[in-house]
Amino acid sequence: MTRLNLARYPWIKSLLLSRWPQFLTHAVLLAGFIFTILVGLLGPVVGSHNFAVIFVWIAWWSALKLFFIPLGGRSWCSICPIPVPGEWLQRGGILKSTGQGWGLGKRWPKFLRGNWIQSGVFLLIGLFSAVILTSARITALVLLGVILLSLVLSLFYERRAFCRYICPIGGFTGLYALAAPLEVRSKYPSVCAGEAGKIHYAACPWGINPLALKANTNCGLCMECLRVCPNDNFAVNLRPFGSDLGPQTKLHLDETFLGLVMLSSVLVDAAIFLGPWGALKSAAYTIGSIPWLVFTTVFLGISLTVIPGLYALAIWTGQQLSKSQIPFRKALAQQGQVLIPLGLMAWIAFTISFAFTKFSYVLPVLSDPVGLGWNLLALGKPAWTVDTNLIYLILKAAALVGGLLWSSRVALRLADGTNPHKQSLPTIGFCMLFTLVMLWLLIG
Amino acid sequence: MKKEFIARLVIILFLGIAILIPVAGRQFFPIFSKDKLVEIHARMPENGGWSPAIIKAAVGQPIHLRLISDDVLHSFAISQSDQPPLDLPPGEVVDTTLIFNQPGRYTFYCTRWCGVNHWRMRGIIEVSGPGQTTDKQPEPLYLRLNLDLDAPHLASVIPEKQPSAERGAQFANLLPVYATDPYTYQTNSPTQLWQQLRTEANLRELSDADLWDVVAYIWQNHTTPQKVAQGANLFSTNCAACHGETGRGDGVMFANLPAMNPQDKKHGLTRPPDFTNQQVLLGASPAILEGKIIRGGMGTGMPYWGPIFRDDQIDDLVSYIYTFVLQPPD
Question: How far is CA B20 from CA A24, A55, B53, B135, in A?
């Protein structure tokens, strides 16, 4: 397939090879992260006027789903400030390793590898989302907890253990990065093979061998392999959307489970935040109450049994219809790729539903970031409101239907039996059912 | 090493700025202003009400208030003043500067119906300094008359049809002098005055209905359309949450409670009285209504408004309340 190596342009290449642009971005974002925590704790109690809530859950969360992931895959991971303090300690230096780093450098336990913990953390966030997403104090405490956990783990374990195995955003972006039109790949794997190739692995903070990279999942786009490669053997490619999706990519059961968790999370978030059910909102908000326990049971029931059960039924039926010889467990894992475009487009549609209307909160909190009545941007009363009606309805519907078509195409590409259409039909049916529910929730 | 040093310096600088702005930003305002700054947070009374609830100020010295609602829409109003209340949308900072010309205790309160305990949302500004204090008010009429505000005041006689002040005006020249005296108006309920006039020899020819028209005329003569309009405005802002816009006692705060039995002295948890019920209102004198407003209803949940309204505002409210059963002036 066609690829365009962005590093062939000298100015882009020099930007990627220099550590300063990335460092400065990290520095600004780390300062912003600390600022956000402090404002979350000290600023206005009201979420809609607190910089922490607006910037984390409106600006960043929307940008992640509408821009970073669809266009850049794990591009956010390349500038995320959360792991950098730990990484600097591990390296003993900010710009590069000094050989005097801190930490035990242990390997992450085998039994904890994969996306299982990330799925669990995502479910946990879903259970408390009504509070986390609306309370500035809780948002700040979550951010503080995340950066401290990342720091502590980097002192015990090698490289980015937190990003790869704990961070729910890492799991989410890694999975959907398979659909993104950006990749880092070696140009000619044989060129750096042998002893010389170890330099790339040693430099990779993500603990992968960049020479053997086949899919985007675990590549954080940090560009370290480009910087250390003595043979200029790495390319940063623009590629068609969904290039990693197909039989050539092997998905594991934990990744498929994460894909299913992402589907149930978007369904439940859409129902809580965009649905007309006041009782559901208050149940999700009153943590520890009986209604919340009911909500928890239903949420976990949907996430752990209903959606995985329907998915498994669809895969099993497809296997039976097509007389596929692939073991059921393997098929469950491999067919999970259909969940990637389906989930990604559902998250995009969900984000369209609230992000644009809520963007009007961004300027006021920028103008008064600490909540002290400042008007740094000299804003008057808002002279405009966002019309959310027709254009957003069309965009949401297009995203959901686009997701259905894309996932159906992936399902057909993955089919291996004697009758690919028969095999993929139940999977497409599952995707269609999900899309219909999302259309009902987002459009009505 | 030089690059590493610069990088570390950049991090320290950026983090320093990130920490300094939110932590020290709170202190910036007093640097640029010599006014006293007080940050007041507003929350529903069950979550703390005004915080702080007591503020100290000095006569003639500007006091700058930074008002922030932490939950729902509140408003900030100062007692015994004509200044319109300031709305406090949740999370927004609302600044205002006050200067007090007289010492005294000023009540600040919320005029938005923020919750069932809305009326409890009050605070005090203690203003010290030279001058005559506003605290020394003349003794209210209900205390001078030793009226029992909590006793039922039901009208024993009520008109059969709506009294007309216009028709009553035709008999104005027949009225005894005391009938139009302000003191008579203040101290008698419409029914009491009707009963008193019924005994007058030169009004013997008038029918009962004619006499009610005369009473309506007398009540109308003690107010003006402006006073009624101001009373309506005050009622709508401060009273309608409980008493209802229509005065039927069906305001949003108590709409679900059982209706009040006017005969029952122990009111308990019931709706406020129905002002459109002639028995209720025609049995109450302006002194009693004024007393209820100043002191509040004992054991009924009716708050005291004495520190909040001026005498003329209470008078306006009383004028308006009577319009639920008597024709207002044109």
Answer: 20, 19, 30, 45
Q: Which of B107, B128, B149 is where one domain is finished?
A: B128
> What tokens appear for A255 in the block?
């990744």
Average pLDDT of the residues in B42-68: 90
Of the three residues B108, B128, B148, the one that is the final residue of a domain is: B128
Using a CB-CB cut-off of 8 Å, the residues of chain B touching A28 are 14
Contact B7 A23 (CB under 8 A): yes
Contact A46 B70 (CB under 8 A): yes
Residue A260 DSSP code: H
C-alpha angle A193/A197/A200, rounded to 5°?
Answer: 145
Q: How far away is chain B from the Cα of A37, in angstroms, using its nearest Cα?
A: 10
What part of A 359-398 touches B (C-beta under 8 Å)?
368-374
Residue type, B265: K
Q: Does B20 touch chain A (CB under 8 A)?
A: no
pTM above 0.80, yes or no: no
Tokens of A82: 């959360």
For B197, the domain range is 137-330
Q: Is B303 helix (H, G, I), strand (E, B) or coil?
A: coil
* Axis crossing angle, helix A420-442 with helix A390-414, rounded to the nearest 10: 160
User: Both B66 and B155 in a single domain?
Assistant: no
Contact A154/A103 with Cβ under 8 angstroms?
yes
Highest mean pLDDT among A7-16, A89-98, A122-131: A7-16
Q: Check residue A308 and report its DSSP letter.
A: H
Could you tell me if B96 and B145 lie in one domain? no
Q: For residue A23, list chain B residues with Cβ-Cβ distance below 8 A.
A: 7, 10
Q: Are residues B189 and B108 in the same domain?
A: no
Asked if pLDDT for residue B246 goes beyond 80, the answer is yes
Tokens for B102? 């007289």
Same domain, B181 and B212: yes
Instruction: Round to whole Å and give the CA distance between A383 and B81.
Output: 33
Does any domain span residue B253? yes
Least CB-CB distance to B26: which of A27, A50, A372? A372
Domain CATH number, residue B58: 2.60.40.420
* Distance in angstroms (rounded) separating the CA atoms of residues A64 and A51: 17
Query: pLDDT tens, A6-54?
Result: 999 999 999 999 999 999 999 999 999 999 999 999 888 888 888 999 9
Instruction: Mark whether B181 and B220 lie in a shared domain.
Output: yes
Number of domains in chain B: 2
Q: How far are the Cα atoms of A40, A139, A173, A354, B82 from residue A142, in angstroms, in the given order?
A: 10, 5, 19, 22, 47
At residue A3, φ and ψ (nearest 5 deg) are -130, 145
| Nearest-by-CA chain A residue for B65 | A373
- Check if the beta carbon of residue B201 is closer than 8 Å to that of residue B174: no
Indicate which CATH number applies to the domain containing B296. 1.10.760.10
Same-domain status, B299 and B254:
yes
pLDDT at residue B263 greater than cutoff 60: yes
Q: Collapsing DSSP states into helix, strand and coil, what is residue B68?
A: strand
